[in-house]
Automatic annotation (TrEMBL):
Record-level GO BP terms: AMP salvage
Molecular function, one GO term: AMP kinase activity
Binding site for ATP: 8-13, 125, 170
Catalytic activity: AMP + ATP = 2 ADP
Lineage summary: Bacteria, Bacillati, Actinomycetota, Actinomycetes, Micrococcales
Entry remark concerning the domains of this protein: Consists of three domains, a large central CORE domain and two small peripheral domains, NMPbind and LID, which undergo movements during catalysis. The LID domain closes over the site of phosphoryl transfer upon ATP binding. Assembling and dissambling the active center during each catalytic cycle provides an effective means to prevent ATP hydrolysis.
Protein name (record): Adenylate kinase
Transferase is among the record's keywords: yes
PROSITE patterns: ADENYLATE_KINASE
Record's keyword annotation contains Phosphoprotein: no
Species, as recorded: Microcella pacifica
Region (NMP): 28-57
Length: 192
């Protein structure tokens, strides 16, 4: 399953809640990149400049990373992706990976959030967590990158009949409930 939506829509928060309830790992490419930057790995070194600028890390690097991660044992029973795929090339790579495993996607949840609201949320997160890419001009750029490169994927998944749109504005638990109902409509039960 995938969670898709603009920066600040709450993908990471909801991915954690769902991952606990479903008992499958939540995989956030953003978190993996940040860990690598913190630990000063070669991957982190390559990704850092893109992240600081609010640009996508190149597809080849990102796709290799995700293929490795999804190939690990804990993903055998399913997984929840947060922040991937973000480009059409990443969709292609994920499709290829899943086909190779004889697996397929069950659902794509779009967390819908107004740009003004996400800018405000990220302003708060910048104060709390000090993420360099939450600086206001970088946030605006991330939103542009989202609009240009990622938003088009929503149509791709809608055409495949996989997309459920969920309002991402509201209390965290309320949004989780909305996702739960959207999944229930697809016959996917999320234990409480
Ligand atoms: P957000 O969704 O709030 O932008 P993320 O934690 O998902 O935050 O991503 C932070 C940064 O990590 C992105 O701006 C980008 O540089 C990099 N990144 C994360 N996921 C991907 C991806 N799938 N492809 C390319 N770059 C990515």
């Amino acid at each position: 399953m995938l969670l898709i939506g603009p920066p600040g829509a709450g993908k990471g928060t909801q991915a954690h809640a769902l991952s606990d309830a479903l008992g499958v790992p939540a995989i956030s490419t953003g978190d993996i990149f940040r860990d690598n930057v913190r630990n000063e790995t070669e991957l982190g070194r390559q990704a850092k400049a893109y992240m600081d600028a609010g640009d996508n890390v190149p597809d080849s690097l990102t796709n290799d990373l995700v293929r490795d991660r999804l190939g690990q044992d804990d993903c055998a029973g399913g997984f929840l992706l947060d922040g991937y795929p973000r480009t059409t090339d990443q969709v292609r790579a994920l499709d290829e990976f899943l086909a190779g495993q004889g697996a397929s996607m069950d659902a794509v949840i779009e967390l819908v959030a107004d740009p003004d609201v996400v800018v405000e949320r990220l302003r708060k997160r910048a104060l709390d967590q000090g993420r360099a890419d939450d600086d206001e001009s970088v946030v605006r750029h991330r939103l542009t990158v989202y609009r240009e490169q990622t938003a088009p994927l929503i149509d791709v998944y809608a055409q495949r009949g996989l997309l459920s749109q969920v309002d991402g504005i509201g209390e965290i638990d309320q949004v989780t409930e909305r996702i739960r109902s959207a999944l229930a409509e697809r016959g996917i039960r999320v234990p409480a």
